[in-house]
Amino acid sequence: MPIRAENRERYPKDWKLRSRFVRFVRARGRCEWCGAEHGKPHPITGSKVVLTTAHIFDDRPEAASLLNLAALCQRCHNRHDAAARLKRRSERKHRNQLTLPGIS
Known about the structure:
Layout: H1 15-26, E1 52-55, E2 69-72, H2 74-96
Antiparallel strand pairs: 1-2
């Protein structure tokens, strides 16, 4: 998943190295959950697999220990992040809404 501009500074300086290590050394170019291979068609969706590095237990960018990271295909990463992404989107929408005095 792309890093949002407002979160870029929260990632460790060596994020690219950690991400690459997790995806291609530890996971050997395969999704750690479903086994889909980077660059090949996904066995379920048929789309080209691009491995991503996901935060598994703690989704804060600062929580970048190797034990908290996993190499996931787009399908597994999206499924893992879906609930948190929906919550953040709702919070942003709520924060950006215009509130008028006296109206609840």
